[in-house]
Amino acid sequence: MSNPSPINRVLRSRDEARSSYDKMSGSYDWLAGFSEKKYKEMGLQTLDCQVEEWVLEVGCGTGQCLVALGEAVGRNGRVFGVDLSPGMLDVARSRLLKAGLEDLVDLTLGDATEMSYSDNSFDALFSSFTLELFDTPEIPVVLTECHRVLKPGGKLCIVSMAKKSRNSYMVRLYEWTQKNFTKYVDCRPIYVEQSISEGGFNIRSVNEMSMFGLPVDIVLAYKK
User: Fold this and answer.
1) Euclidean distance between the first and final Cα of the chain, in Å?
2) 54 and 121 in contact (C-beta within 8 Å)?
3) What is the pTM of this model?
4) How many domains does the chain fold into?
5) Tens digits of per-residue pLDDT, 30-68?
6) Which domain holds residue 188?
7) 66: in domain
8) Across-strand partners of 127?
9) Among 175, 166, 158, 177, CA closest to 217
10) I want to staple 87 with a disulfide (CB 3.0 to 4.6 A). Which of 22, 111, 143, 165 is the partner?
């Protein structure tokens, strides 16, 4: 299926992205965490992790979702989180320590385009407001890595800003801002469902929502 319009590029470097998130790590939950909270919680409900599962969160940030994942899998399960920013991981560690889950969650400083985990390691994978941060050619690379580390039949839930065939004025305005100020506005709407399907996953459900007039998709899929 051809897309009616291309998605914007994200042209800032990894070092620029890391520096930006390190600087905002202490205030990220105030800047974006609360506005994203509802969608993350719905994504976690959609993923529906079970006791004893091994779960990976890609782009775990300040660890908001790691606590919920840890509580879901219990002491016989295991949760892993990977993020590019040391500052964000420091906040996540503090959050896990406060929740008494520091021995249940393993945090890794790394890049989702080349993860250090072994093939077929996880029962489930979660990622929220992360896939749209990657440059357009990197999105299939990230999804290939997600496919690689999931077990056969493993489930994947992606929460992301979504680009539609017909975009509203708010989406066009947002895309214009991101295109012209890409070093400061790094995320943008992407074709979420199509990207996941082309990554080798079977789509199970798509929940279309809106955040400040911007489409958000919550997609549940399984590894073929």
Assistant:
1) 20
2) yes
3) 0.94
4) 1
5) 888 778 999 999 999 999 999 999 999 999 999 999 999
6) 14-223
7) yes
8) 158
9) 158
10) 22
